[in-house]
Amino acid sequence: QVQLVESGGGLVQVGGSLRLSCAASGSILMINSMGWYRQAPGKQRELVASISRSGGTNYADSVKGRFTISRENALVYLQMNSLKPEDTAVYYCMAASTSYGRDFWGQGTQVTVST
User: Fold this and answer.
1) What pLDDT sits at residue 31?
2) What's the 3-state SS for the chain?
3) Which among 32, 42, 19 is positioned nearest to 91, based on CA atoms?
4) How many angstroms separate the CA atoms of 75 and 86, rounded?
5) In angstroms, rounded to a whole number, what is the distance separating the alpha carbons of residues 91 and 35?
6) Cα dihedral 29, 49, 98, 94 sign
7) pLDDT number for residue 73
8) Best CA proximity match to 98, nearest among 63, 46, 64, 52
9) Euclidean distance between CA atoms 8 and 108, whole angstroms
10) Averaged pLDDT, 66-75
11) In whole angstroms, what is the distance from residue 113 CA to residue 111 CA?
């Protein structure tokens, strides 16, 4: 199994920056891609960014040019710049494993962007 622990969320003003971190433990060699999702109140969870084992990245259109995902061994980061109020959400780390045939999720970290 894989365990994920996020950190780095908080309250920031519009235009500010935050860096989220996610530490994976357990069967980390079974992890393929990792990613960040977010869920705002009353909305569905959506993909923010993902990164493959080889380093290929994918971003939601709404965060392109502002967010950067990176990965270092069992750690994945999300650097968020030029934050907007609409970025306010609970951010979840995800690890996909084809070996286990499932995705693993962290507990989430709140990001609030104030005006």
Assistant:
1) 92
2) CEEEEEECCEEEECCCCEEEEEEEEECHHHCCCEEEEEECCCCCCEEEEEECCCCCEEECHHHCCCEEEEEECCEEEEEECCCCHHHCEEEEEEEEECCCCEEEECCCEEEEEEC
3) 19
4) 26
5) 10
6) positive
7) 84
8) 52
9) 10
10) 94
11) 7
Contact in structure between 103 and 90 (CB atoms under 8 Å): no
Report the amino acid identity of residue 111: V
Read off the tokens for 73: 């061994």
Here the tokens at position 59 are 């971003």
Q: Count Cα neighbours of 57 within 13 Å in the Cβ-side half-sphere.
A: 17
The CA distance from 54 to 45, in Å, is: 25
**Structure tokens given for 56:** 């290929």
Question: Cα separation of 84 and 13, whole Å?
Answer: 8
Residue-wise pLDDT for 15-32, tens only, equals 999 999 999 999 999 999
Length of the chain equals 115
Q: What is the mean pLDDT of the chain?
A: 96
